[in-house]
């Protein structure tokens, strides 16, 4: 088993897409069996409802969000797509930022048929898409690991978080699992009564080294940037690969 986990890349206008070239080269060199993007590949800031009407919102355009996301996909896949036998399985989880497209159409029915999730081009680029299920992220199981943009708890479907999010997730889901969403990095390991190793990974984010989000303020310093390589989680063999290490190798 070899799974490369790519957390929350947030491709957006005004931010360099160089990290997607680096990612494509890393995938080619590592040759993982599967690549899982944890969601929020596209930022879709033009559909953000939190700061609509504020000065910072001015100038955002849907077509620009789509163009950047498609460029990022092209930069990622062009390094290995030519060799079908060595091409990994590509899985794209729908994150809450991509889900903004569905939310916009739900809020304004006049947009139906004008904009849509397919505009992002994920399926056209060869990615299997795991969509939202209702108002919460979909869950995909690969080789005994549950992957979701974030996991929920309780009937209200709120994201599991807290001071130790990986511990919170594993204590509620009781299965080896991997999430992202919060942009922080965390890991927890426990064993069940059957002597099975259970692990939970919160995978950080894959933002550009210079990218900071104004809404986050000091929380930007808490975020971990890079990817997670699950070589064989059953034996505890995994590796965190930092953005700085990727930049030095491919930048």
Give me some keywords for this one.
single chain; 251 residues; alpha/beta; 6-stranded mixed β-sheet; 13 strands; 22% strand; globular
Structure description:
- The chain has 251 residues and is an alpha/beta fold.
- The chain has one domain (3-132, 205-250).
- Helix content is 22%, strand content 22%.
- The protein contains five helices and 13 strands.
- The protein has helices at 18-30, 62-77, 99-107, 165-173, 243-250; strands at 3-6, 34-37, 89-93, 128-130, 140-142, 145-147, 152-153, 158-159, 177-179, 185-191, 197-203, 226-232, 237-242.
- The strands form three sheets. It has a six-stranded mixed β-sheet with strand order 4-3-2-1-12-13. Strands 5-6-9-11-10 form a five-stranded mixed β-sheet, covered by helices on one side. A two-stranded antiparallel ribbon has the order 7-8.
- Helix 1 packs parallel to helix 2 and helix 1 packs across helix 5.
- It is globular.
- The mean pLDDT is 92.
Q: Classify the beta-strand content into a percent band.
A: 15-25%
Distance between the termini: 28 Å
In DSSP terms (H or I, runs of 4 or more residues), the helix count works out at: 5
Give the topology string: H per helix, E per strand.
Answer: EHEHEHEEEEEHEEEEEH
Tell me the number of structural domains: 1
Mean pLDDT: 92
The helical percent reads 10-25%
Low-confidence residue ranges:
none
SS-based class? alpha/beta
Q: How does the major sheet shape up?
A: 6 strands, mixed
Cα-based radius of gyration, to the nearest Å: 18 Å
Please provide the count of β strands. 13
Please give the order of strands in the largest beta sheet. Answer: 4-3-2-1-12-13
What is the approximate shape?
globular
């Amino acid at each position: 088993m070899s799974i490369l986990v790519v957390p929350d890349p947030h491709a957006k206008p005004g931010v360099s897409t160089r990290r997607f070239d680096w990612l494509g080269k890393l995938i080619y060199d590592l040759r993982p069996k599967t690549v899982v993007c944890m969601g929020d590949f596209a930022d879709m800031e033009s559909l953000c409802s939190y700061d609509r009407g504020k000065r910072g919102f001015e100038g955002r355009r849907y077509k620009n969000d789509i163009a950047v996301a498609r460029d990022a996909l092209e930069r990622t896949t062009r390094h290995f797509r030519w060799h079908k036998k060595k091409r990994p399985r590509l899985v794209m989880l729908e994150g809450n930022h991509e889900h903004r497209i569905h939310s916009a159409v739900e809020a304004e029915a006049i947009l139906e048929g004008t904009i849509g999730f397919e505009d992002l081009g994920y399926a056209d680029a060869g990615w299997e898409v795991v969509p939202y299920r209702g108002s919460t992220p979909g869950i995909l199981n690969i080789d005994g690991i549950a992957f979701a943009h974030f996991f929920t708890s309780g009937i209200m479907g709120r994201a599991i978080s807290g001071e130790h999010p990986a511990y919170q997730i594993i204590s509620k889901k009781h299965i080896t699992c991997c999430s992202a969403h919060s942009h922080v990095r965390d890991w927890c390991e426990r064993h069940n009564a059957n002597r099975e190793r259970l692990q939970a990974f919160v995978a950080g984010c894959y933002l550009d080294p210079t990218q900071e989000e104004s809404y986050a303020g000091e929380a930007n310093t808490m975020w971990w940037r890079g990817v997670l390589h699950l070589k064989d989680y059953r034996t505890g063999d995994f590796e965190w690969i930092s953005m700085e290490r990727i930049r030095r190798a491919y930048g």
